[in-house]
Design brief:
alpha+beta, conserved putative lor/sdh protein from methanococcus maripaludis s2 fold, Elongation Factor Tu (Ef-tu), domain 3, 7-stranded antiparallel β-sheet, 6-stranded antiparallel beta barrel, 32 strands, 24% helix
């Protein structure tokens, strides 16, 4: 009996061991099966997938467990360079062909909305927002890069700068005093001032058109001698230029002498013909530019000269000479050009956008290398009614040059100061962010609160002041330094609001 009982106990023990071993093997198989289904991927290259942990073949980073696809429907991928590009699956950015990376902010935002919907608790939203006391840092070139510690941007290697705490409203940015000091944000008051605009034009000294002369002859002949045989020589009126031989001129002298001697006293016509003939021959010599002094010498000598001296009718500088000794000259042929430089022009050129500030009679200040530090004050005598091929209009200033200090072709700078009538609302030009299609400024509406505003500008005046036509009021505080960081933060907030479907997104053009 005892033997049967012992045998039964042994059989029961063996059965229990078999059952326990079977359950253990089943659990081990299930665990191994579960482990065999775990996949690993690279955070930077999500297309890299492996059945076991290891290193990424692209960037040598450690592979991390890949989340179950059944629970990753809320995972959003975005491009580091173009945060507006989002996708629910890994892939390549259509803009720059970079690999999309998981957008943790969008994923946390999605989980926050899901938690808020399920629990209907306002505390869930506030608990997911970052602590406003924690200073964050961002890249000025890539505002999508945000970190809680200073460092270097992983994209462009620039130093990270303090991130501005953004407000909720459209185009509003909030910053604390410490961040404001680090960003060097400065403001100035919008005010009214009288504006002056100085226009600088460059030109050169030129001859006055009314003081340029041409010397020619009204008779044919031959050049026997040149008294002025080079250019640049100063001549006076009445000074000899050249001697010519002209058969016609010799014949005219003889006719004059005959008329001067008169006819036979028995000729009854002498009393009436003599004065008329004498006047005709005298007029012929004068019409050929023979002077009264030369005719008087002809009267005194009583003999016709073989050559006649041609004198200069003008005073000035010989600028051109077109004749040589021995030349055969013709009626109307130009022999010399003479210019009077006792009074000269300064011709300068004004661009069309500056023409509204230019008028005849306006005072100008002229400087030139030949003046050696001194200046000439004069007035505009002429403004061209048309533009040249360079879209410029010529202005002229007449200068007295009795001393001959200014010489033609010298360079000169003309400064013209115009003053607008009445005061105008102005701000520094550094305060304006100009995108071409619009002008933007930031106004400090409250301490630490800045709002973007579009304005319309007018002329740019001296002192780098810009006239404001619309958009501002006197007394407002406009940002003149650090506004580009504010604009960068505003654009980032708008991009985030646009991607998340926010209604307050403002598009920059």
């Amino acid at each position: 009996m005892k033997k049967k009982t012992y045998l039964a106990i042994m059989l029961l023990a063996i059965a229990a061991l078999v059952i326990v071993a079977g359950c253990s093997d089943q659990k081990t198989d299930e665990k191994a099966k579960a482990e065999s289904s775990q996949l690993y991927t690279c955070p930077m290259h999500p297309e890299v997938v492996s059945d076991e942990p290891g290193l990424c073949p692209e960037c040598n980073m450690n592979l991390v467990p890949k989340e179950d696809s059944s629970g990753s429907s809320d995972q959003v991928y975005t491009c580091p360079m173009h945060p507006e590009v989002t996708s629910h699956e890994p892939g390549l950015c259509p803009e720059c062909n970079m690999n999309l990376v998981p957008n943790e902010a969008a994923h946390d935002h999605s989980e926050m909305e899901s938690s808020s919907t399920m629990d209907n608790m306002p505390e869930a939203v506030s608990s997911s927002e970052p602590d406003s006391k924690v200073q964050q840092y961002t890249c000025g070139m890539h505002p999508q890069v945000v970190t809680n510690e200073p460092g270097i941007c992983p994209i462009c290697n620039m130093n990270l700068v303090p991130k501005v705490a953004s407000g909720i409203g459209d185009g509003v940015v909030l910053i604390d005093p410490t961040t404001r000091q680090n960003m060097a944000v400065a403001t100035t008051k919008v005010d009214y001032k009288k504006l002056t605009r100085t226009i600088r034009a460059y030109g050169q000294v030129s001859y006055r058109e009314s003081e340029q002369f041409s010397v020619n002859l009204k008779i044919r002949g031959y050049v026997e001698k040149l008294y002025i045989n080079e250019t640049g020589v100063h001549v006076k009126s009445g000074e000899p230029l050249l001697e010519i031989y002209s058969p016609e001129l010799v014949a005219a002298q003889n006719e004059y002498l005959i008329a001067l001697k008169g006819f036979d006293s028995k000729d009854g016509r002498s009393s009436t013909v003599r004065p008329r003939l004498l006047g005709a021959t005298y007029s012929r010599l004068r019409n050929w530019d023979i002077t009264d002094e030369q005719i008087k010498r002809l009267n005194d000598s009583g003999e016709a000269a073989m050559t006649m001296t041609i004198e200069s009718p003008y005073t000035g500088i010989v600028t051109d000479k077109f004749v040589q000794e021995g030349d055969h000259i013709f009626i109307g042929q130009e022999l010399f050009r003479i210019a009077n430089v006792s009074s000269v022009w300064i011709s300068a050129y004004i661009y069309e956008q500056d023409l509204p500030y230019i008028s005849v009679g306006q005072e100008v200040t002229i400087t030139s290398p030949s003046l050696i530090g001194s200046k000439i004050i004069s007035r505009i005598t002429y403004v061209s009614p048309f533009l040249n091929s360079n879209r410029q209009a010529e202005i002229r200033v007449e200068i007295d040059n009795q001393q001959g200090t200014l010489k033609p072709k010298m360079f000169a700078e003309v400064n013209i100061k115009s003053q607008l009538p009445g005061p105008s609302m102005v701000i520094p030009r550094s305060a304006i962010i100009n995108s071409g299609m619009r002008q933007l400024v930031f106004i400090e509406t409250a301490p630490g609160e800045f709002r973007a505003r579009d304005i319309k500008t007018g002329m740019v005046a001296d002192g780098d002041l810009v006239e404001v036509l619309e958009g501002l009021e006197t007394g407002e505080m406009v940002v003149v330094s650090g506004q580009f960081m504010l604009d960068s933060e505003t654009r980032l907030n708008e991009a985030i609001a646009s991607n998340s479907g926010g209604s307050n997104a403002h598009q920059h053009h």
